[in-house]
Design goal:
Mean pLDDT: 94
Radius of gyration: 15 Å
Structural class: alpha+beta
CATH topology: Factor Xa Inhibitor
Largest sheet: 3 strands, antiparallel
Helix content: 25-40%
Low-confidence stretches: none
Distance between the termini: 17 Å
Length: about 60
């Protein structure tokens, strides 16, 4: 039986923490940044922890 390949899009976007949670970059930092305030941009740029239901799907894509 062949090995399962890691989803190449998922491995660029998600990281697994030491405790097994999935981290991703916050949304909203791709465009229209000149109209957003500094405080908003700073808070949006932080990493987020995925919900457990979403994390289950991403772990399967990452082969974990």
């Amino acid at each position: 039986m062949p090995k399962q390949k890691t989803h190449s899009g998922a491995k660029k976007r998600f990281k697994i923490t030491g405790s097994g949670k999935i981290k991703k970059q916050g949304a909203g930092m791709r465009h229209n940044l000149e109209v957003k305030g500094s405080d908003l941009k700073r808070s949006m740029n932080k990493d987020r922890v995925l919900a457990p239901a979403d994390a289950k799907v991403i772990k399967k894509l990452l082969g974990k």
